[in-house]
Structure prediction request, 296 residues.
Amino acid sequence: MSKILISGYYGFANAGDEAMLTAIIESLRQVEKNVELTVLSGNPEDTAAKHQVCSVYRFNPLGIIRAMKDSELIISGGGSLLQDVTSKRSLLYYLSIIGLGKFFGKKVMLFAQGIGPIRAKWARKLTSLVCNEADLITVRDSESAAELIEMGVKPEKITVTADSVLSLNPVTKECGQYLLPFFHGEREEVVYLLCLDAKCKALDCVLIHRGGVNVASIAARKVVKAALDANATSVVLAHNHPSGLALPSPEDRQTTLVLKAALEAVGIVLADHIIVADGDFVSMRDDGILEDPYGL
Prediction:
């Protein structure tokens, strides 16, 4: 059984980063079902419960060292971890995790990262030094690859990836599995909108509504605005039934059709509406309430 340590901006209730972690975990488990995963997190208890992994507080030096020594591979990413615009301390933290992994003789991979901006000269030199020690670097765009090369990172270490773990085919159950962690522990009704680009890659997962009123009260304009703000080509709506029954109500069906029409008016496809309850979900597209927009 492989043992992998994952480092990133996790455990801070950031929907985008939590979605990335979900995608990384699902991708790794597809390759090896029983892989043993440990995640460095700002909230280890929450991360462990949501993602069914081991988790260590990200500022616990002894815990990090123990987890690192026990791992075979360190994954840094995804997201924009290596930048010094928001915080130089953040950059130093992520570089130290990479460097510590190599110090202990572990394989280290930078995964689907967006690099920069890194402005300080010393920070660019340090990033180059540390990244050249990594075993593999994948970046999410050519600009990030060019930035690393300009800093002095060896080109042969760098691969531009299409962020395949974020590629969601909304006509499969993977979309529902991707969204399930967002509803973990919720005792009231919440509604999320998963925004996708033309290649069905996740752009953002936006909290649309929280509270006791039912999904029929959701304003179409709020959903449309969130989709437009994300520059989405298609979206997947998801909400939970705290009652524990993942079956669409008449109100769910009516709201779905209203939102579908509102989104189509601005050229955005409502690919699916997923209902979550008790760790399970149903797809309204699979139930025939929505047509398959992809013709599959």
The CA atoms of residues 216 and 252 lie 6 Å apart. Confidence is low (pLDDT under 50) at residues 164-171, 292-296. Residues 15-31 form the longest helix (17 residues). The two ends are 36 Å apart (CA to CA).
